[in-house]
């Protein structure tokens, strides 16, 4: 499971934004259970996204399909990165910087 910080200003309607990003990015409506949203798509047999208690983070848990072909894996990874960009408000590069900084602070 990975936890990602959400940019200030993106936390207002985070649940709605997660649902919208799933629908637009993956083309499927997520199953909702409380503050957790889940889908199955492409190379992911299951992807669960939950909103942190503070409402300022999202936790993502993924389970990959072992039998996915390379084209499916590449498509799924692209959609996953775009999903995270939209939900967190940070680009991939910014998320990496923040993750490195968090590890250094521990």
| Count of all domains | 1
Question: What's the SSE pattern?
Answer: EHEEEEHH
User: Helices and strands: which structural class?
Assistant: alpha+beta
Strand content: 25-35%
Helix content: 40-55%
Mean pLDDT rating: 92
Write the CATH fold name.
TATA-Binding Protein
- Shape summary: globular
Poorly predicted regions are none
Could you name the key traits of this structure?
106 residues; TATA-Binding Protein; globular; 3 helices; 5 strands; single chain
Describe the structure concisely for a colleague.
The chain is an alpha+beta fold. The chain is built from three helices and five strands; from the N terminus they run βαββββαα. The chain has helices at residues 14-26, 70-88, 92-105; strands at residues 2-5, 31-33, 36-41, 44-51, 57-64.
Molecular structure report:
- This protein has a single domain (2-105), classed as TATA-Binding Protein.
- A hairpin with a 5-residue loop joins β4 and β5.
- The longest helix is centred in the last third of the chain and has 19 residues, at 70-88.
- It is globular, with a radius of gyration of 14 Å.
- A 5-stranded antiparallel beta sheet has the order 1-5-4-3-2.
- The chain has 106 residues and is of the alpha+beta class.
- The protein is 43% helix and 27% strand.
- The chain has 3 helices and 5 strands.
- The model has no long low-confidence stretch (mean pLDDT 92).
- It has helices at 14-26, 70-88, 92-105, and strands at residues 2-5, 31-33, 36-41, 44-51, 57-64.
- α1 (14-26) runs antiparallel to α2.
């Amino acid at each position: 499971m990975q936890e990602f910080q959400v940019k200030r200003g993106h936390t207002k309607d985070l649940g709605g934004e997660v649902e919208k990003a799933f629908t637009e990015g993956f083309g499927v409506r997520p199953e909702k259970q409380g503050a957790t949203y889940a889908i199955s798509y492409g190379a992911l047999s299951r992807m669960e996204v939950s909103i942190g208690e503070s409402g300022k983070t999202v936790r993502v848990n993924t389970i990959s399909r072992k039998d996915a072909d390379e084209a499916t894996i590449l498509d799924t990874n692209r959609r996953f990165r775009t999903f995270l960009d939209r939900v967190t408000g940070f680009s991939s590069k910014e998320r990496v910087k923040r993750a490195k900084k968090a590890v250094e602070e521990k």
